[in-house]
């Protein structure tokens, strides 16, 4: 039975950073809807043009498109991995229900756990202003810890700023988070599936906490 770990939290909370670390440490499969949608947006077809416009506005991509993308990758994970980290999905109540339906059909609903990375908005905004990403392997950096040559230390590509990390779009993403994503906290809390972590700490202690939970959940017997 696989583990399905959802990392929930506002923009800049560290979901992407911790997802990469967990997947490397535990051999888990990474499903990051933001990265997947940015890949689609770089392509050249009508859907790509629509997705690009939504990302640049800081709005949510429609649920049907996201479901299609996520289902495709979850099907891959089902074959080969002991667990999946879902970074940025689900993002609203409709997506949460779709995920629950998918897991129920597979008899895996009890394998879902959600960790909320809790961070004050002002800290998150500061982090986002300094974020740089690798456009090739999607690793996340910050200007205060960037390699001196400005290249990704894993694959060597030149690091870039994300198109939606401008002040106006960051503000819009927070509004969208508060309106659409925050209700998921209560949704998962009432189901007894949510753990809160203080994300206003350095990366290492956050990772150690997450790793402790993942170890426990990976070895949890099927209910
Ligand atoms: P997405 O890419 O998921 O963006 P997001 O949710 O806004 O989250 P971020 O990637 O901005 O932040 P993060 O929490 O991953 O932080 P990170 O680790 O990078 O989504 C982008 C867009 O795609 C959405 O706006 C939407 O349009 C669309 N989309 C995505 N999913 C969707 C869905 N399900 N449905 C519909 N549309 C969807 O860290 C941020 C910075 O902080 C980095 O510089 C990092 O180095 C630094 N940092 C990380 N941890 C720490 C720490 N502990 N201390 C100090 N600095 C830290």
Describe this structure in words.
- With 223 residues, the protein is α/β, with parallel strands linked by helices.
- The chain has a domain at 3-120 and 194-219: 3-Layer(aba) Sandwich (Rossmann fold), CATH 3.40.50.
- It has helices at residues 15-26, 33-41, 46-57, 63-80, 93-105, 121-129, 167-181, 183-190, 203-218; strands at residues 3-8, 29-32, 83-87, 112-118, 131-133, 140-142, 194-198.
- The chain has a 5-stranded parallel beta sheet with strand order 2-3-1-4-7, sandwiched between helices. A two-stranded antiparallel ribbon has the order 5-6.
- The chain starts with a strand and ends in a 5-residue tail after the last helix.
- BIS(adenosine)-5'-pentaphosphate (AP5) binds next to helix 1, helix 2, helix 3, helix 6 and strand 6.
Quick structural summary:
This protein has 223 residues and is α/β, with parallel strands linked by helices.
For the structure shown, list the relevant keywords.
9 helices; two-stranded antiparallel sheet; binds BIS(adenosine)-5'-pentaphosphate; 50% helix; 223 residues; alpha/beta; Rossmann fold; 5-stranded parallel beta sheet
